[in-house]
Design a protein that fits this description.
Layout (H helix, E strand, L loop, with lengths): L3 E4 L3 E4 H13 L6 H20 L2 H7 L8 H5 L9 H10 L1 H14 L5 E3 L9 H14 L11 H12 L6 E7 L23 E8 L5 E4 L11 E8 L13 E6 L3 E4 L18 H21 L4 E5 L11 H13 L10 E5 L8 H15 L3 H4 L4 H4 L2 H33 L11 E3 L8 H20 L8 H8 L4 H27 L9 H7 L1
Antiparallel strand pairs: 1-2, 3-12, 4-5, 4-9, 6-7, 7-8, 10-11
């Protein structure tokens, strides 16, 4: 008889089972030996690897409402990860809607030009401000036209803003006269030096396809770890104008000589999400609609012809195919407006042409929803006439946000800082600031209404004795929202006008005739 031990929870168990349980308890996992634990650990590891290897497309297919179908395959849409930079570039070059989707935000944001200054005193021009203004002469050469709004620097920065949105990034090449090759690191300013030591010769803009990254920084102690170190810049892109240059030249360029610009950053700090990625399927659908509608009109607007034999002949008709083909060629391709047939009747087929407008509008609406852009603005309609005031103000708010939160810190500031580090610009004593003009552009009617309201406010303020409570200068600045300098100029102009009026009145009193004829001065002379 086998000896047994009483188990508190299960009654009686054998000695062998008790021994096994004792070994399991000593291992920390009751009821499981070492082999079982090894198998379980291996199974969990394989499960974790499977989970890691699960792609988003596989998860999407498993979660699909109808696993028998693939919308992308049925519609001819490519997988997201399979779209290359060349394909984004090709769509941008060939599709008007794709080009507008890439350019609308930069073009609208750069419709006004910012100003860079070291001090807000407009009468004082610092060394830094003068050097920034002189960049225009360095890029376009000597010019007799002087204007703060035609600085070509803004044009290059706007262009790199556009090109960086086609793919994952864009670069702006800085050509400086340091006497080194482009693949060599540029010499940065020595600590303590503040003067201009180098000159900016040229700027060039490249998109991702013409500026592939060739090497990354692999030193973990480098603050730029994981970021690009060198690029292969392709000059004279052969896909552009055939007169751009004789051959395509590729040069390796060090990162210190370029400004790397990437929009729509997500989980990567130097590769942004292309502006066309989320709307790629919509753009392909629009290509089908535009191309299909044109082909449909080409085939359907010109009615086809049906050539039929007479029914009473029961098909017993000898048809001269060569002669009939020649007649059709003459009718279709020349000015001949008749067809000679024997025993046959020519009938016109009814054309079938449908308007694709509703389908095109639906795709455009989806694109505008993603971009947060009013449809009329995306299509280039006049804001004041077609777009509502609320849409206009909301769009301007988004443009202001993009100017201050993206263009200034991600494009303008890196560009200016790099020029300072390279010795092209002097070191500003108190730093520099970037200021954008107001995007709101009131119409003539709005200006007239605002002027009338301000005038009424001033009249009521004067007639009601408001200066006893609020001084006039404070009324202009705090209530009407004027700039203090502007308000002081208005008050000085008003006081000067009042003095002129008093002098004029005094002169008129001196020249007033008195009884007996003559003026006061004549009467005094007589006396």
């Amino acid at each position: 008889m086998t000896e047994t031990k009483r188990d508190k929870s299960r009654g009686f168990v054998s000695n062998e089972q008790a021994k096994s349980n004792k070994q399991s308890e000593s291992s920390g996992k009751p009821g499981m030996d070492r082999l079982q634990r090894t198998a379980l650990a291996q199974m969990l590891a394989e499960k974790m690897v499977d989970n890691v290897q699960f792609s988003r497309s596989q998860i999407a297919r498993q979660l699909s409402l109808d696993p028998r179908r693939s919308i992308d395959n049925d519609c001819g849409f490519p997988q997201t990860n399979s779209i290359t930079g060349e394909e984004y570039k090709e769509l941008y070059d060939r599709s008007a809607v794709a080009a507008r989707a890439v350019e609308v935000l930069p073009m609208e944001s750069w419709q006004v030009q910012p100003s860079i200054f070291e001090t807000e005193d407009i009468k004082e021009e610092t060394v830094f401000e003068k050097a920034w203004a002189d960049l225009s002469n360095a890029l376009i050469g000597s010019s007799w036209h002087k204007s703060a709004e035609d600085n070509p620097v803004w044009t290059f920065l706007r262009r790199v803003d556009i090109q960086s949105g086609i793919g994952n990034y864009g670069v702006l090449l800085l050509g400086i006269d340091d006497g080194k090759e482009l693949h060599e690191p540029a010499e940065l300013r020595e600590e303590g030096s503040a003067d201009v030591t180098q000159k900016l010769l040229f700027l060039r803009v490249f998109d991702q396809t013409t500026a592939p990254i060739t090497r990354y920084i692999t030193d973990t102690s480098d603050p730029r770890f994981g970021q690009p170190e060198t690029y292969n810049l392709k000059f004279n892109d052969p896909r552009g104008n055939s007169d751009a240059g004789p051959t395509t030249t590729t040069k390796q360029v060090h990162w210190t000589r370029v400004i790397h610009v990437a929009d729509n950053l997500a989980s990567n700090e130097y590769l942004g999400v292309p502006r066309l990625r989320a709307i790629y399927n919509n753009l392909l659908s629009l290509r089908k609609l535009y191309g299909g509608s044109a082909e449909m009109y080409w085939r359907g607007a010109f009615p086809g012809l049906s050539i039929e034999t007479h029914p009473q002949l029961m098909g017993d008709v000898d048809v001269d195919d060569a002669a009939l083909k020649d007649e059709m060629e003459q009718y279709m391709n020349t000015l001949q407006r008749y067809i000679r047939t024997t025993g046959m009747t020519v009938n016109s087929l009814a054309p079938q042409v449908a308007s694709p407008k509703e389908q095109i509008e639906a795709q455009l609406e989806a694109i505008c929803i993603y971009m947060g852009c009013p449809k009329r603005i995306f299509q280039g309609s006049e804001r004041g006439e077609l777009s509502s005031g609320q849409d206009d103000e909301t769009w301007n708010d988004r443009l202001r946000y993009r100017q201050t939160m993206y263009i200034t810190p991600r494009i303008i500031v890196p560009f200016a800082n790099r020029l300072i580090m390279l010795g092209v610009l002097p070191v500003p004593e108190d730093g520099y600031m970037v200021k954008w003009p107001d995007l709101s552009s009131p119409s003539d009617e709005d200006k007239a209404t605002i002027a009338l309201q301000i005038t009424d406010s001033i009249v009521k303020y004067v007639q009601g004795g408001g200066e006893q409570i609020v001084p006039l200068i404070d009324f202009f600045v705090r209530i009407l929202g004027m700039d203090r300098k502007e308000a002081e100029e208005i008050l000085e102009s008003a006081m000067a006008q009042e003095e002129d009026d008093m002098l004029t009145t005094s002169d008129d009193d001196d020249e007033e005739p008195i009884a007996g004829g003559g003026s006061n001065e004549s009467q005094r002379q007589k006396t």
